[in-house]
Amino acid sequence: DCYGGYAKMATIIDQERAKDLPVIVVNAGDEFTGTLWSLTYAGKESSTFLNLLGFDVMTFGDHEFDKGPQVLADYISQLNFPIVGTNTVPNPSSPIFNKFSKSAIISVKNKMGQEVAKVGICGWVTPDTKFTSSPGPDINFADVIPSVTACVAGLNNQGVKIVIGLGHGGINDDLVVAKSVPGLSLIVGGHSHTFLYSGRPPKLSVAGNTTDTPLFPYPINVQNDFGTTVPYVQAFWAGRYMGRFTVTFDAVGRFKNFATTQPILLGGSVSESNVPEKPSVADLVQALSGPVDALNGQIIGSSTVVLNGRPYLQDPVTGPGSAEINLGDLLTDAMVWKVAQNPSFEQQFGPNVIAATNTGGIRVNVPAGQLTRAQILSVLPFGNVLTIIQMNGATLRSAIEFSVGLFTPTYVGNQFLQVSGIKFSFDPSKPAGSRLLELVAFNPIAKCFTPVDAAATYNVISNDFTANGGDGYSMFATSKKLLATGPVLADVLAEYVQNFSPINITDKLSLLDITTSNRINVITANNPFVSQKTCARKMRRSLFEAL
C-alpha cells in the first residue's frame, strides 16, 4: 500500500481542474534523482509524467544537475512547459545555455479557455549547488536576493502584477527571500523537505495514530520589509503529499487571503487520505517499471559479515548489547569519503574528517553476501541527504553528551549517534549530562586521535534531519551550515560499497569486545575506562591552525 506517485497526483490535478477556479500546477525542483527510476531513465520518466499531468512551470532543484549539464539539457528539451532558473548562470559553452528562462509568464485561464490573469514566475536554486551537485565548470549560481529582485522588477515592467516565486533554497533561505524582495506575491518552496500543516495531519494508517509531524503551519505568512504579507508553502518530500491552496490577490498583486486548504496526503487504502490512482497514468507506470524492477535487484557489491543496522539490546542469555553498529561505522566512513572526493570543499572550509548520523535513520540489518540497491534503500529509506555543519568543540561535546543521555542497557535510542573520525567513552551509570568521559577526534595531519578542544573549530558531516535539529539536536540546528543539501545518503553508501567491496568490517557483537573498531566505549565494571587518545605529543589547538 504505497504513498505518493504520479498516478495519485493526476487524480488530484484532475479534481482541481474540474472546479470553477483557474488552476496553476507548479514544481519547485528535484525531480529526477535519488530513485531507481532516475537511475534507469535519467530524467526521461520525470519529463514524461510531468508533461502527461500538465504541469505549467518548474524551477531547477540542485539535484537536477546531478548527472551533469548534458543530461539536464536533454531533460529540458523533453519538457513541454518552461523551466525557470533566475539565478542560474551558464557560460555560452554550457549545454544548457539558452535552454531555459530567467522568468516566465503564465496565462491563467478559466474553464472556458478565457484568460483571467497573467502570473509571473521567478525560480531560484541554492548557490550551494556548485558543491552539492555536478553542474560542471561552465555553470555558476548568482546570489539569490539580487537575482530575484531583478526578476520581479522585470515582470512588473511588463505589466505583470502577480509574481510567484519557486524557491529551491530551503525554508530558511526562502523565508529571507520572502522578507527581502519587493513585489513577490507568494513562494512555493522546496529543497529542505519541510512538512507544513495546520492542525492534525491525516493518519498514515486508520488503524493507528501515526502521522507525519509538521514543523510549521501551512502556509507561513511572512511579513516582508515593505508592509505586505507573502505566504510561503512547501509540500514535504518525494511526492508523499501534494500541496494545494486557493489564494486571492488584489489588483496590484498583493496577497489578500488564503483559503483553509492543506497539503493532501497521497495515501493508500489503509491511510486516512486514500487517493485513488488515475488508471491511465498507473498503466504507464506499470509499463515502464520493468527495467526499474531489474535494477532493484542489481548487485552492487558484497559483504563478508552481517551488517548490523540496529543496536543490540541486553539479553538475559547473551549479555550486554552494543551501542556501536558496524553499519553505522560503514555509513559514516562513506560520508567522510564522499566529501573527500571534492578537494575544493576542504580548501574552502577546512578538514572534513568527522561524521555523525542518528541511529534511527539506519533501519535494518543486512545479511552477509551479495548487496543489492534494494537493500541499500531499505537501510536508508527516508531520502535524507548529506549535510555539513561547523561548530566549536564545546558544541560537539554537548551533542555527544546528548547522544548518550538516554542510553540504558536495554535502550539505545534513535538519537544515538554513529560516528566516524571521533571516538568517545561514556559511563551510563552517571546522570544524563555528565556521562561523557572522553571525546577524541582524528587529526589528519598527525594521523592520530587527540582530545576535542572546546575552543577549536570542527566540521561535522551529518544528514539533513539531524543537522536541522531532528531527534533533539538543537545544537546542530544553530550551527553554521557549510553544505545544506548534499548527495542522497543512500547514493553515497551505494557508491562506497561499489568502490570498496567486499566489505569486511568486524561485526561488533558485544560491549565487552574491545578488539573491533571501538569508536564508542560504554564503560562498565567489566570494561573499565582506557583513554583512546593516540597522539604522542600535544597537538595544535585547531585542525585549521595545523593546515
Mind telling me the CATH class of the largest domain?
Alpha Beta
| Percent range for β-strand residues | 15-25%
Share of helix among residues? 25-40%
CATH topology of the largest domain: Purple Acid Phosphatase, chain A, domain 2
- Can you tell me the CATH superfamily of the largest domain? Metallo-dependent phosphatases
Low-confidence parts lasting 5 or more residues at pLDDT below 50?
A: 313-321, 507-516, 538-547
Our count of domains comes out at: 2
Shape: globular
Task: Please summarize the sheet with the most strands.
Answer: 6 strands, mixed
How many strand segments? 26
Main sheet strand line-up: 5-6-8-9-11-10
- SS element count, helices: 17
Structural class: alpha/beta
The CATH architecture designation of the largest domain is 4-Layer Sandwich
What Rg, in angstroms, do the CA atoms define?
Answer: 25 Å
Q: What's the rounded overall pLDDT mean?
A: 88
Keywords: Hydrolase, Nucleotide-binding, Signal
GO molecular function, one term: hydrolase activity
Domain Calcineurin-like phosphoesterase: 2-194
GO biological process, one term: nucleotide catabolic process
